[in-house]
Amino acid sequence: xxxxxxxxxxxxxxxxxxxxxxxxxxxxxxxxxxxxxxxxxxxxxxxxxxxxxxxxxxxxxxxxxxxxxxxxxxxxxxxxxxxxxxxxxxxxxxxxxxxxxxxxxxxxxxxxxxxxxxxxxxxxxxxxxxxxxxxxxxxxxxxxxxxx
Length: 148
Known about the structure:
Largest sheet: 4 strands, antiparallel
Structural class: alpha+beta
Strand content: 15-25%
CATH topology of the largest domain: Alpha-Beta Plaits
Number of helices: 6
Number of strands: 4
CATH class of the largest domain: Alpha Beta
Order of helices and strands: EHEEHHEHHH
Oligomer: single chain
Strand order of the largest sheet: 2-3-1-4
Shape: elongated
């Protein structure tokens, strides 16, 4: 299944108040299965605009990412963030293709047939809507799909 991601760019304007937001978001993030993939760190911004801090959270599904954002618990935390920072946020569906293809290539025999078919279909859908760079992965998935 495709995961959900929050991709945020943040400028913290009041570090002490921002700490209150960090404490308040822990509950909803835990409840909806969020995991920090990127939290700050060095970056370069060769195009467009940016903010001082970049954050990527991974959720078990796109729906979980949306549900977390809309939850009363997160909306309360959000109020704390809004007075302590400025930000841009995108909630996006994504698939970690490299992980899923590795599962199909190396441990497919351990994956239940229905899940294996779902993973193959998710990867096919992902490849069909991504750039031409995914062509080789798509060809391999189609080959696996026809072998069953």
